[in-house]
């Protein structure tokens, strides 16, 4: 898996970034608005850097680079609001090079002397249409029935008028102008159609760059503006919406990358994803610029601040082709209506999202285990929650060395994180989510690093053999996600042992586990995060009481009470008052988990129900399912990025919190959508796909809470991802 650019692409990005920073400043963008949003000097400079030759085949005089190279440039163009129809010009130049017959015009376009753009609609059906860059275009490449033509636009044919964002668009009667046929028939039409799909990718990249920069402007303003004596960035009502929008905008960028990879690999969903990516990025950018503007308050409405430029440009770029919902409909037809598409040749690209042979190998092993080693009686006990833990299956997994797949310290394998993630997905596919094993692995890892020899001999060895599991005793009734506010006390007796008194809430699996990892307060006279100590506490010890709490998710959790529970000092993890450091060790096992795979499995169940009902051909149904697909691929890519960044030791930009928060939020949205799509049958818990749809709706609510609430993660995203001030105590 790789999210890094090559050295050459990094150089290309940095070169264009520097040029655009110097030549597409706010002042230049505003100046270009006086000439209908076109900066002729900028256009010439872009040509000198080779921008318009990037996608032109080498045999036609171009650079012959791939779509990914062009995407890198377009993201910078979006970030700096480059004034001119760059995405359209890149596609038009490539089409001229591919089709031939207009070599002089192509040379002029590459050199920046001519502005050549594209028409989005067939001239035979829509002779008069809006053209991006039309006010300054010298020529337009278009479809006209079975022909692909280049239309010459004489001076005065396109009249500038006031527009939303003062971009150089114009409504032109193209059918009334002189046209040269570049190609005819199936091949030429396919080439042009591929060009239009390439434009969707380029424009989506530009919008992701634009959206992220708008959020950066909003975040920077929130770091300097005060209200009620505080920086407004400390208000969660300001920072949290920006964090939401950052996930969506970043997701759009990653979706572009994933779609290019899918095209290169010939993935069956690539065509539908091309349509989805512009819908998603256009929608995300529009939401991002509006939220960023809101951060400025009334000042955002003035022309003094640049944020309004981003607000208007986001919509002007995204809507030049037409209603974004048309793209969602197109995606639906491509996924479910068998609508054909012609995709561009994307060329070489460095990014890779393959799980690898190691993952496929262990996945096959997990599949074989569940197909051959599990009895019908054991399978009946499976459940997605802790209550699905089956002791006999747990023991078999340990014997098959499939229990602790990424942790040799626990006696397991040394699988890489990608293989471990895929193995977990295979477990889920067979209905055995096994959260107990995951928590036990984490607790065991902490024992390896901080446990005494006595603790390892008495407890850790049993965990390794699969004889028992552990649960977590972090949260308390009064502190929830603020674990550092724990008040459960641990007091040392004269003989060195400890007495633990207090209450823990949400101790899931305590009714099944033999031990709990306990966070206690050992020093109330220091800052709350410094006076904490960790222990392993036997849940069968005298003074421990476990009471059930049942949820509407069909999950049981527990409240646990500790009344003078005696624990030997040898069962302490790490130094006294050093619990925070011990907890940090567990983070080494975290790589940005999420719920994209759960949403995908529920979508498959939903599709099955709708297929049997004969509803998959309904356009509205197709669009709603396509929207869910967009969420799945975006969530998965954010999860992949978090895992990759952790493996490669990249700077902490809150990628992990983004993965968990975004996927849990869209899980609820999508689960509700699928419950509605399949109603009233989905109200039933009938075994099969309906049961999964019903269960997912109830399950999704909890994912936004456990493992850290979405609100906590939003604060982390705002702080680390946008550089905003701390919003938590």
From TrEMBL:
UniProt key word Oxidoreductase: yes
Keyword Oxidoreductase assigned: yes
Residues in Acyl-CoA dehydrogenase/oxidase N-terminal domain copies: 6-85, 357-467
Residues covered by the Acyl-CoA dehydrogenase/oxidase C-terminal domain: 195-322, 592-721
Record key words, sorted: FAD, Flavoprotein, Oxidoreductase
Pfam family, one: Acyl-CoA_dh_M
Record-linked Gene3D superfamilies: Acyl-CoA dehydrogenase/oxidase, N-terminal domain (1.10.540.10), Butyryl-CoA Dehydrogenase, subunit A, domain 2 (2.40.110.10), Butyryl-CoA Dehydrogenase, subunit A, domain 3 (1.20.140.10)
Domain Acyl-CoA oxidase/dehydrogenase middle: 472-551
SUPFAM superfamilies cross-referenced by the UniProt entry: Acyl-CoA dehydrogenase C-terminal domain-like, Acyl-CoA dehydrogenase NM domain-like
InterPro entries in alphabetical order: Acyl-CoA_Oxase/DH_mid-dom, Acyl-CoA_Oxase/DH_mid-dom_sf, AcylCo_DH-like_C, AcylCo_DH/oxidase_C, AcylCoA_DH/ox_N, AcylCoA_DH/ox_N_sf, AcylCoA_DH/oxidase_NM_dom_sf, Mycobact_Acyl-CoA_DH
Cofactor(s) the protein needs: FAD
Gene Ontology terms: cellular component: plasma membrane
MF (Gene Ontology): flavin adenine dinucleotide binding; oxidoreductase activity, acting on the CH-CH group of donors
Family of the protein in this entry: Belongs to the acyl-CoA dehydrogenase family.
Name of this chain's protein: Alkylation response protein AidB-like acyl-CoA dehydrogenase
Record lineage: Bacteria, Pseudomonadati, Pseudomonadota, Alphaproteobacteria, Sphingomonadales
């Amino acid at each position: 898996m790789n999210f890094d650019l090559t050295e050459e692409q990094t150089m290309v990005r940095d070169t264009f970034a520097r040029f655009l920073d110097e030549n597409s400043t706010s002042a230049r963008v505003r100046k270009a608005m006086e000439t209908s949003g076109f900066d002729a000097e900028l256009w010439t400079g872009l040509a000198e850097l080779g921008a318009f030759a990037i996608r032109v085949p080498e045999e036609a005089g171009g650079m012959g680079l791939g779509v990914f190279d062009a995407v890198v440039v377009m993201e910078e163009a979006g970030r700096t609001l480059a004034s001119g129809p760059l995405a359209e010009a890149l596609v038009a130049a490539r089409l001229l090079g591919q089709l031939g017959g207009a070599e002089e015009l192509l040379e002029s376009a590459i050199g920046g002397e001519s502005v050549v753009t594209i028409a989005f609609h067939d001239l035979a059906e829509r002779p008069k249409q809006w053209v991006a860059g039309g006010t300054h275009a010298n020529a337009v490449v278009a479809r006209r029935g079975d022909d692909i033509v280049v239309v010459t636009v004489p001076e005065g044919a396109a009249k500038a008028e006031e527009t939303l964002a003062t971009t150089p668009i114009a409504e032109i009667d193209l059918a009334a102008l002189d046209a040269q046929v570049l190609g005819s028939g199936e091949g030429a039409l396919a080439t042009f159609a591929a060009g239009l799909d390439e434009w969707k990718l380029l424009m989506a990249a530009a919008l992701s760059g634009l959206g992220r920069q708008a959020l950066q402007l909003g975040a920077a303003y929130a770091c300097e503006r005060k209200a009620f004596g505080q920086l407004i960035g400390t208000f969660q009502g300001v920072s949290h919406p920006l964090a939401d929008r950052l996930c969506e905008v970043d997701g759009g960028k990653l979706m572009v990358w994933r779609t290019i990879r899918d095209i290169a690999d010939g993935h069956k969903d690539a065509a539908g994803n091309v349509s989805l990516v512009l819908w998603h990025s256009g929608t995300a950018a529009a939401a991002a610029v509006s939220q960023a503007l809101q951060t400025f308050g009334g000042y955002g409405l003035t022309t003094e601040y640049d944020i309004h430029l981003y607000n208007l440009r986001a919509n002007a770029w995204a809507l030049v082709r037409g209603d974004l919902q048309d793209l969602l409909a197109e995606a639906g037809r491509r996924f479910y209506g068998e609508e054909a598409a012609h995709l561009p040749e994307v060329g070489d690209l460095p990014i890779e999202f393959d799980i690898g042979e190691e993952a496929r190998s262990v996945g096959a092993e997990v599949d074989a285990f569940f197909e051959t080693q599990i009895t019908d009686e054991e399978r009946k006990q499976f459940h997605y929650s802790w209550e699905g833990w089956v002791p006999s299956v747990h023991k078999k997994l340990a014997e098959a060395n499939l229990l602790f797949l990424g942790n040799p310290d626990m006696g397991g394998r040394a699988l890489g994180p990608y293989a471990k993630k895929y193995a977990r997905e295979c477990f889920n596919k067979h209905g055995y989510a096994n959260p107990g094993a995951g928590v036990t692995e984490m607790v065991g890892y902490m024992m390896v690093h901080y446990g005494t020899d006595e603790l390892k001999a008495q407890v850790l060895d049993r965990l390794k053999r699969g004889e028992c599991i552990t649960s977590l005793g972090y949260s308390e009734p009064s502190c929830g996600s603020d674990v550092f506010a724990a008040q459960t006390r641990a007091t040392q007796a004269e003989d060195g042992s400890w007495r633990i008194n207090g209450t823990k809430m949400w101790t899931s699996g305590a009714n099944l586990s033999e031990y709990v990892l306990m966070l206690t307060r050992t020093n109330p006279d220091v800052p709350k995060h410094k006076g904490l100590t960790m222990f392993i506490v036997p849940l069968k010890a005298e003074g421990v009481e476990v009471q059930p709490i049942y949820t509407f998710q069909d999950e049981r959790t527990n409240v646990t009470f500790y009344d003078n529970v005696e624990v030997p000092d040898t069962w302490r993890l790490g130094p006294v008052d050093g619990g925070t450091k011990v907890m940090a060790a567990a983070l080494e096992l975290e790589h940005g988990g999420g719920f994209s795979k759960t949403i995908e499995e529920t979508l498959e169940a939903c599709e099955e129900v709708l297929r049997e009902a004969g509803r998959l051909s309904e356009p509205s149904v197709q669009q709603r399912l396509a929207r869910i697909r967009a969420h799945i691929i975006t969530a998965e890519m954010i999860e992949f990025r978090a895992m990759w960044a952790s493996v490669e030791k990249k700077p902490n930009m809150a990628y992990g919190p983004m993965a968990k928060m975004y996927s849990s939020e869209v899980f609820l949205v999508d689960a509700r959508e699928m419950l509605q799509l399949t109603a009233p049958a989905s109200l039933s818990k009938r075994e099969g796909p309906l049961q999964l749809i019903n269960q997912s709706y109830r399950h999704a609510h909890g994912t936004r809470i456990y493992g850290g609430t979405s609100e906590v993660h939003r604060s982390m995203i705002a702080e680390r991802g946008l550089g905003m001030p701390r919003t938590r105590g």
